[in-house]
Specification:
By secondary structure, this protein is of the alpha/beta class. It has one domain (about 5-164): Aconitase, domain 4 (Alpha-Beta Barrel). It has helices at about 10-15, 25-30, 40-45, 65-75, 85-95, 105-110, 140-145, 150-164; strands spanning about 5, 50-55, 80, 100, 115-120, 125, 130. A hairpin with a 4-residue loop joins strand 5 and strand 6 (about 125). Helix 7 packs across helix 8.
């Protein structure tokens, strides 16, 4: 697992350049352009299970879905930030992308420090130091586990229909 670390106010244009908004809609079209202007190596080197650490106001900017769709499609396990822009937070829930707010862990993280995430305990181990983050609601985890809100809703509807 690799940690990709960035600063404050990483906006949606930094995550996915707006110039591709109307030409890239599918995950495979989005992935090559992720963080293209901020970190040209990201799209080439990111691996499933990697995490992003970032400062405050992560995902500010426009309400485009492509940044979240792309980050989910490349397999980002979680984004850990000091805070999130509200619209990005909602889009991430819809796609089943895990967002964790843990300013203390972000503040101490340095490149190559070992990181372990424990969702059951709502803790993160960074360089052998444990940091607690707010417990994620079971609904958020269920949406993530289902692969996003659409799949979660479909599964619930199927369960209701088969119970009748």
């Amino acid at each position: 697992m690799r940690i990709w670390a960035y600063g404050d106010d990483i906006n949606t244009d930094m995550l996915f350049p707006g110039k591709y908004t109307y030409t890239c809609a599918k995950p495979d079209e989005i992935k090559p352009h992720l963080l293209e202007d901020l970190d040209p190596e990201f799209a080439k080197e990111v691996q499933p299970g990697d995490m992003i650490f970032a400062g405050k106001n992560f995902g500010c900017g426009s309400s485009r879905e492509q940044p979240v769709v792309g980050l989910k499609a490349v397999g980002i396990e979680a984004i850990v930030a000091k805070s999130y822009a509200r619209i990005f937070y909602r889009a991430a829930i819809n796609q089943g992308l895990l967002l964790i707010e843990c300013p203390e862990a972000v503040a101490v993280y340095k490149p190559d420090m070992p990181v372990q995430l424990n969702l059951k305990e709502s803790t993160m181990l960074v360089d052998n130091q444990t940091y607690k983050f707010p417990t994620l609601p079971p609904e958020i985890l269920a949406i993530r586990d289902a692969g996003g809100l659409l799949e979660y809703t479909r599964a619930r509807l199927r369960a209701k229909a088969s119970a009748k």
